[in-house]
Inverse folding.
């Protein structure tokens, strides 16, 4: 009880100094709990949707795993179907009350003819077009108009109609993958009964859906509902018996599991990204807490000595500090849990903005949320306080009463220095090994471990580095700012351990952003150089759906000023090598003009050999399997379509556009795969005719394809911008992490300076008494803050450069051939560090300036 009273008294005596540490705990816990609440709510919402709409059994075409695996290896744009008589067979199964044929495809595009813009989700959710069926578990109901009746009518979901500003009687164009373009009149609006998962739904009548979407009188699945006399498993077994081979049957539970898995992959991305933010907050917050308790322990040295002198044991002193940390952890976790609920509501609002309708009033706070919140908040706080607590318990009573530090401190510094040097040297050695590794996978493993060890090494070495680096960084301060500058430099060097821990939080954030900037900048520069070097095509035409159909190819090829259009198809295949080994790979089938549009470097053979019916392989795959030009490879495209093809070219590694790709000519593919099974193009390339104006032809090409708003036409400059935009998505995530790290790092600097001002109260009073003005005092504290921030920035920049350069070297042979160091980003980082230091010093400097001189001198 005495221990608890002492801890509580100490905690509330320093409550103002605990606030910033509390904020760090709250941020960490908020990200963890908010992420879990959002994930629980989204998962629960979709589970209810899938459970309320799944049929008892669903009959679907069998998957086409080329090597016997239960995977679906269908070519791009191809939709698997079941024959119409499957409906009657399933309906005849004992216990089936109703069986319905269903048509649903995700490769059709809905267009508003008035605006000529695609309608539907833009956040990754699908646009599903199919037939209207009356089932016992429809996900939607007609709330305006009526069901589709006839070949020119369409029903649209209410959310999509609202966003596209469409109403009954409006026209909608449907661009199908293989069956042309059709226009319909909006005859009905359907509203989701539970929640809209973010998809756009369009319904036609059954004959029209079969004709326009599939081109044949078949279905994509048969949905059956039982009469309750038999279990779903029994219905499944009997249906398989009736149907024979070529089908798969899934129960309601299996459908729910499959749907949840597909949604879960997207939710998991968000979940782990948010937990990454929580991890950064935990890491940098840990340094803040360590610093806070270290300084509080230092300020309570005499108090600790008195406790020891009157009989308090080392264990009791240790526990006293840890109980304070426990109080901080419990309070921070409680506040963080509340903040996490607010964060979850914000995430739900963000998802609703992109079309995924979730109900913020139905938050799912499972038991895992408070358990994780309190575990994270309490564990990180107690662990961070353990080092200062242990240090406090080792202070001898008489030394503490004389305000002396622990005698073991010098020995501790030696151990810290040795450990830091060993860790940093080991991490540096691993980075060197990573840069010189023969295989990217091996280099990546070395890189990951090297990053971890160098980071820990720099944190451990922080106090040693602070003495040297701060002396250099602050060397000009005395000359420029006089006494204020000299005092600021000495203050920053006075407690190297404190300076090192304060700067560590900022160091971590800046190391991340510099490393990521070097890597992404190198990626962009390497790809741009590869485009300039390899791409001879003037235009790249791609679709938001990854499918370019024959009508689009024909329109592009007929554009005035276009010399030719090169098609690029992709399809799964199983390669059987001369030694009998088999490998599943995606094969790129290209037109004969591909060699004119792309200048690919070869290790051996010639790209021109594709025109003679050969195969082109990547250098690494060929080397690993000991393949050479002239060897014959058997290629299985599925559905019994096979052919033997000689290797005609081995492509050099290092191509960032087509690294590791396997090529075959479309003419060669057509000898094995009939037109009906031929995949659609995933991308096409255009070449301007000799003498044609490239810019004017670009406009003509866009005009030729204006009826297909899902297509994007880019010239080489636009292609470079596309690559840069894709890379920047990763970079923005890193910048988000940096922003969070900076917030916590600023809190750390503020806390350190605030506690330092309290610690040096008498000293500040004496300085004021001998003539130091308030302005000079505030300047001294601001300069001290700037030096600490710059110290963290310098360490972070050094680490980030080492990580980024090593990452580029690891992937040098995989296309990241050019190193690009973003000098602008580095300069901006150093300038931002000065600003951070100035901002962090505002409150402590203001408080120091208001201090009463006589009261400060009288402070014990």
């Amino acid at each position: 009880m005495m221990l608890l009273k002492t801890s509580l008294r100490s905690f509330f005596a320093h409550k103002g100094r605990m606030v910033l540490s509390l904020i760090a705990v709250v941020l960490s816990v908020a990200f963890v709990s908010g992420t879990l609440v959002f994930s629980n709510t989204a998962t629960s919402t979709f589970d209810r949707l899938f459970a309320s709409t799944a049929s008892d059994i669903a009959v679907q075409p069998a998957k086409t795993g080329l090597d016997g695996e239960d995977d679906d290896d269908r070519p791009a744009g191809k939709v698997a179907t079941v024959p119409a008589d499957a409906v009657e067979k399933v309906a005849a199964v004992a216990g089936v009350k109703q069986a319905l044929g269903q048509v649903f495809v995700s490769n059709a595009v809905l267009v508003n003819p008035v605006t000529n813009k695609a309608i539907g989700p833009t956040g990754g959710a699908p646009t599903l077009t199919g037939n209207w069926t009356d089932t016992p578990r429809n996900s939607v109901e007609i709330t305006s108009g009526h069901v589709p009746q006839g070949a020119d009518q369409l029903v649209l979901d209410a959310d999509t109609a609202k966003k596209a500003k469409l109403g009954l009687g409006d026209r909608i164009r449907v661009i199908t993958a293989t069956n042309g373009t059709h226009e319909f009149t909006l005859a009905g609006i359907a509203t989701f009964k539970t929640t809209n998962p973010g998809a756009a739904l369009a319904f036609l009548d059954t004959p029209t859906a079969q004709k326009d979407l599939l081109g044949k009188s078949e279905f994509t699945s048969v949905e059956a509902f039982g009469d309750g006399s038999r279990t779903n498993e029994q219905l499944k077994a009997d249906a398989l018996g009736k149907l024979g081979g070529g089908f798969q049957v899934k129960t309601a539970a299996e459908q729910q599991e499959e749907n949840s898995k597909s949604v879960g992959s997207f939710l998991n991305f968000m979940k782990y990204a948010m937990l990454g933010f929580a991890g950064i907050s935990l890491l940098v917050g840990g340094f803040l807490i360590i610093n806070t308790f270290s300084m509080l322990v230092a300020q309570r040295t005499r108090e600790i000595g008195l406790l020891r002198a009157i009989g308090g044991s080392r264990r009791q002193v240790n526990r006293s500090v840890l109980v304070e940390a426990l109080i901080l952890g419990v309070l921070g976790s409680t506040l963080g849990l509340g903040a996490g609920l607010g964060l979850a509501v914000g995430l739900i609002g963000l998802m609703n903005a992109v079309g995924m309708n979730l109900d913020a009033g139905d938050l799912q706070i499972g038991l895992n949320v408070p358990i994780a919140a309190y575990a994270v908040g309490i564990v990180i706080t107690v662990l961070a306080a353990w080092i200062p607590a242990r240090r406090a318990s080792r202070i001898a009573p008489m030394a503490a009463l004389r305000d002396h530090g622990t005698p073991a401190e010098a020995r501790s510094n030696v151990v810290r220095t040795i450990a830091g040097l060993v860790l940093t040297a080991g991490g540096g050695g691993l980075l060197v090994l990573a840069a010189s590794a023969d295989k990217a996978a091996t280099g990546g493993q070395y890189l990951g471990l090297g990053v971890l060890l160098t980071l820990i090494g720099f944190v451990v070495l922080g106090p040693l580095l602070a003495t040297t680096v701060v002396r250099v960084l602050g060397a000009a301060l005395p000359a420029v700012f006089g006494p204020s500058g000299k005092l600021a430099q000495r203050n920053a060097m006075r407690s190297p351990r404190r300076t090192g821990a304060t700067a560590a939080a900022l160091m971590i954030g800046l190391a991340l952003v510099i490393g990521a900037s070097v890597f992404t900048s190198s990626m962009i520069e390497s790809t741009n150089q590869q485009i300039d070097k390899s791409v001879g095509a003037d235009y790249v035409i791609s679709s938001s759906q990854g499918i370019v159909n024959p009508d689009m190819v024909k329109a592009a090829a007929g554009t005035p000023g276009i010399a030719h259009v090169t098609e690029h198809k992709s399809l799964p295949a199983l390669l059987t090598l001369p030694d009998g080994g088999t490998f599943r790979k995606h094969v790129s089938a290209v037109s004969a003009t591909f060699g004119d549009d792309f200048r690919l470097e070869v290790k051996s053979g010639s790209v021109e050999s594709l025109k003679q019916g050969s195969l082109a392989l990547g250098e690494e795959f060929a080397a690993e399997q000991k393949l050479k030009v002239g060897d014959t490879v058997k290629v299985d495209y599925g559905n019994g379509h096979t052919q033997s093809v000689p290797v005609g070219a081995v492509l050099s590694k290092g191509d960032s556009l087509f690294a590791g790709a396997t090529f075959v000519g479309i003419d060669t593919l057509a000898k094995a795969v009939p037109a009906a099974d031929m995949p659609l193009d995933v991308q096409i390339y255009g070449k301007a005719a000799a003498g044609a104006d490239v810019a004017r032809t670009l406009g003509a090409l866009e005009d030729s394809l204006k009826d297909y708003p899902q297509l994007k036409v880019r010239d080489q400059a636009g292609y470079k911008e596309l690559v840069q935009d894709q890379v920047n998505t990763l970079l923005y995530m890193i910048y988000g992490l940096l922003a969070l790290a900076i917030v916590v790092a600023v809190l750390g600097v503020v806390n350190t300076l605030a506690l330092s001002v309290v610690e040096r109260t008498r000293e500040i009073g004496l300085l004021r008494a001998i003539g130091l003005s308030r302005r000079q005092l505030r300047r001294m504290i601001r300069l001290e803050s700037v030096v600490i921030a710059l110290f963290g920035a310098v360490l972070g920049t050094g680490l980030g450069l080492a990580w980024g350069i090593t990452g580029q070297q690891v992937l040098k042979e995989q296309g990241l051939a050019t190193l690009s160091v973003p000098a602008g980003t580095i300069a901006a980082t150093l300038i931002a560090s000065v600003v951070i230091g100035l901002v962090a010093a505002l409150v402590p400097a203001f408080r120091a300036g208001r201090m009463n001189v006589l009261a400060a001198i009288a402070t014990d």
